[in-house]
Write a structure and sequence with these properties.
Elements: E1 6-9, H1 14-25, E2 33-39, E3 42-49, E4 59-60, H2 65-79, H3 88-91, H4 105-109, H5 124-127, H6 130-138, H7 157-169, H8 173-185, E5 189-190, H9 211-218, H10 227-231, H11 249-254, E6 262-263, H12 265-276, H13 288-295, E7 299-303, E8 308-312, E9 317-318, H14 319-322, E10 332-333, E11 341-345, E12 350-356, H15 368-382
Antiparallel strand pairs: 1-3, 2-3, 2-12, 4-6, 5-6, 7-8, 9-10, 10-11, 11-12
Amino acid sequence: MTQEIHGTVADGFEAVREEFAAFVAGERPDYEGQLCAYVHGRKVVDLWAGKGADAGSLYGVYSATKGAAHLVVALLVQEGTLELDREVAYYWPEFAAEGKDALTLRELLAHRAGVVGADGGFTLEEVADDRAIAERMAGQRPFWRPGTAFGYHALVIGALTGEVVRRATGRTLQEVYEERVRAPFALDFHLGLPSTLDARFRTAQRMAPTPEQRALIDAQPTGPHTLTAIAFNRHAAHPTDLETLPNEPVVRAQGPASVGGVASARGLAGLYAAAISEVDGRAPLLKRETVAEFGQLHSAGHDLVARTHKAYGLGFQATADSAHPFLGAGTIGHSGAGGCQAFADPRSGLAYGYTRRRCAFPGGAAPENNRLAAAVHRAALAR
């Protein structure tokens, strides 16, 4: 039975609804997801599908959390509280240990620090606690000479940049985010989900790969002491189960800035709309030159952790290079392991958010984002 598509689209975006419906029709019967988009600060797409879901359903958004975290960093750089070319140790002296003294905030944001994980790994409680991760990482010896290469700091980048924020402001990154970003725009994108909203959370479901997809997964190197394993905490005594991480109450409650965000598609798209556009009479959070700085390519090529080509700006993925080449240069965004995707294309004024409940193969932005984001982008350019 074909799933019903709920929600609305603005005039000129009817093809997006058709594309979403065509995708959902080919999915598993238990598919559940949301799609939202803004153009120049106006909501133009607001769709969802799935039994038991609605527009207010909240999902774990994994690494899409990094986009919210680094919007805070961008704001503080814009205001002069943080300086990109200052050494991290200027703000956080303990970080200078083990040859990390010369690493700048710019290099840290570009995943060039080399401290992708900790010897011995983290407990679940540490994964959920940015302060605990920061304390461990301050004394960690880098896995490559800082600044000479790059690799995805999957579970730690938000804790590292968050500690810089805390040292510079006296407040946690989550506190600054709540006060400066989430609350003023009433965003359904939380770094620390209040217990009063927990009933709206939809538990993450494990990937359901086909036999062919399972064979591809099983063929990947799985050594416990590879950089990939260390970055995703697979070498710990109790390895991190990334797929079900949002289902851990301690992770949802504390909202670690690398992977702990909980959001709807409206929240994801709304965040990026607020970053680049006037929304409901409020000025954009970021100036054009700030968006350009943070969207400029800083690391592109072979990612030592992902073991493939990746591209990063400052704290954000360079989404036009690494995921959706039809987007404008300088697009900022971040995907999440469950399949979600979120970005802002400052050249077209497009802000996009997509969530799904079941983790998608092969991880990162789910493949359907290619067709859905392209459909939204075409409609936005046609206006």
